[in-house]
Write a structure and sequence with these properties.
Blueprint lengths: L1 H13 L3 H34 L9 H6 L8 H5 L5
Helix pairs in contact: 1-2
Amino acid sequence: MSNEEKRLDAQIDTASTPAERNRFKKELEKLKKKQVELKAFDELLHHYADKRISLDLDDGVKVNYGKFGALLAEVKQVTGGSEE
């Protein structure tokens, strides 16, 4: 992603038209938003990894899925409760 960011920066600098420059700027903004989201997810993932949550397959999907809170998508639909 950092290489893509560098590439987009270079393309912004060398863009021949304002429209092209704006397009590259929009792409760069999207990329930066994705990087922020991934960093936040990485920190959350690290937090849950540090917890060393044990899973018991006999507990079933609802119980095990619920142990991971906001880390997984649609926890409320699977567990029937809140994310934490």
